[in-house]
Design a protein that fits this description.
Layout lengths: L2 E19 L5 E20 L5 E5 L11 H12 L1 H7 L2 E6 L10 H16 L6 H9 L5 H6 L2 E6 L3 E5 L6 E7 L6 H12 L7 H11 L3 H7 L3 H6 L2 E2 L2 H7 L1 H11 L4 E6 L6 E5 L2 H14 L5 E7 L6 E2 L2
Parallel strand pairs: 1-8, 3-4
Antiparallel strand pairs: 1-2, 1-12, 2-4, 2-5, 5-6, 7-10, 7-11, 9-10
This protein binds adenosine-5'-triphosphate.
Adenosine-5'-triphosphate binds next to helix 1 and helix 3.
């Protein structure tokens, strides 16, 4: 086959705790990542040239070498030079539906789709853990995006322990289209303000990461207890992003005050905010209420749900 179309889902963070600094300059994290039914489509076509070309008509997405899908394809070409010389380069088209710079890992999921797609296109037969290892060199969220579902992520987010998947948790998601939060800015600001509280020694960091595996949020997920999950939502980055972005803070407050909302939280480094609701119907009602309260066209709203999978071939 000369081309593949892949579904690349977004993720939300049900939990994000910053536990310390790492010698490589990244943060040591304890997170729970969850795929949602809001996806981009990535079409990959073997071009029989030496080029990697990226096509995307979304104004916020670069189509040059800075695009994560370009980086993913270039990595595959470097790692598998024989396949590259046999099959040639690729044309990659991104059909963007995931809000950009939103804390939803859109770029990471697109890169994960390219790794999976090129593995298929070049008949490499890589295992999921081999793909995850390649993904980790592109970005901390890329390994999770490959398999998706529900997982504990520690280290800088690349060390994954899959959990029993939470499918059909109903979600309302909101993002101001024109508002972008830089992930490096959020972590840097957090370090400046809260770095004194970090666990300093490597034993302490390892102990915290290991204790996290049996904490209440993990138990709530294992028990599929939606109310407990909603009550245990946590994101340390809210402490720096919400004060700097009052619009996001107001949005979160508005979600929290809606009947039928079980819990609400910013995802990743923001600025998207999501709410867990009881049913899809309730999700529609909450979405309409938020729309009435904030008629601003710049605010994008989605009713979605959690899913069990990461990258998959489009039907
Ligand atoms: P994360 O949650 O992993 O931090 P994010 O959802 O906050 O990611 P992205 O949507 O991945 O952020 O975009 C971050 C920046 O990366 C954007 O400003 C965009 O210019 C750039 N970018 C590079 N490649 C892509 C891509 N394939 N899709 C979206 N943005 C991309």
């Amino acid at each position: 086959m000369r081309s593949y179309s892949l579904i690349a889902p977004a993720k939300i963070n049900l939990y994000l705790e910053i536990i310390g600094s790492r010698p490589d300059g990244y943060h040591e994290l304890a997170m729970i990542l969850q795929s949602i039914d809001l996806s981009d489509q990535i079409d990959i076509h073997a071009s029989s040239t030496e080029n990697i070309r990226v096509y995307c008509d979304h104004p916020q997405v670069p189509i040059d070498q800075s695009n994560l899908v370009y980086k993913a394809a270039a990595l595959m070409a470097r790692e598998f030079p024989k396949a590259f010389s046999n099959f040639g380069g690729v044309d990659i088209t991104i059909k963007k539906h995931i809000p950009v710079a939103a804390g939803l890992a859109g770029g990471s999921s697109n890169a994960a789709a390219v790794l999976v797609g090129m593995d298929l296109l070049w008949n490499l037969g890589l295992t999921q853990s081999e793909l995850e290892e390649l993904g980790a060199s592109l970005g901390s969220d890329v390994p999770f995006c490959i398999g998706g579902g529900t997982a504990i992520a520690t280290g800088r987010g690349e060390q994954l322990s899959p959990l029993q998947s939470l499918d059909n948790l109903h979600i309302v998601l909101a993002k101001y289209r024109s508002l972008e939060v830089s992930t490096p800015w959020a972590y840097k600001t957090y370090r400046q303000q809260f770095g004194v509280n970090y666990i300093q020694d490597s034993e302490g960091l390892a102990a915290r990461a290991s204790a996290f595996h049996s904490e209440d949020m993990v138990k709530a997920i294992l028990n599929k207890n939606t109310e407990n999950i909603a009550q245990k939502l946590h994101n340390d980055l809210e402490k720096v992003v919400l004060p700097a972005y009052p619009q996001v803070w107001q949005l979160r407050e508005l979600f929290a005050s809606q009947p039928g909302v079980l819990g609400t939280m910013m995802s990743g480094s923001g600025p998207s905010v999501f709410a867990i609701v009881e049913s899809q119907n309730q999700g529609q009602i909450v979405k309409e209420r938020i729309r009435e309260a904030i008629p601003d066209e710049d605010l994008e709203l989605f009713v979605t749900h959690t899913i069990k999978h990461g990258i998959k071939i489009a039907q």
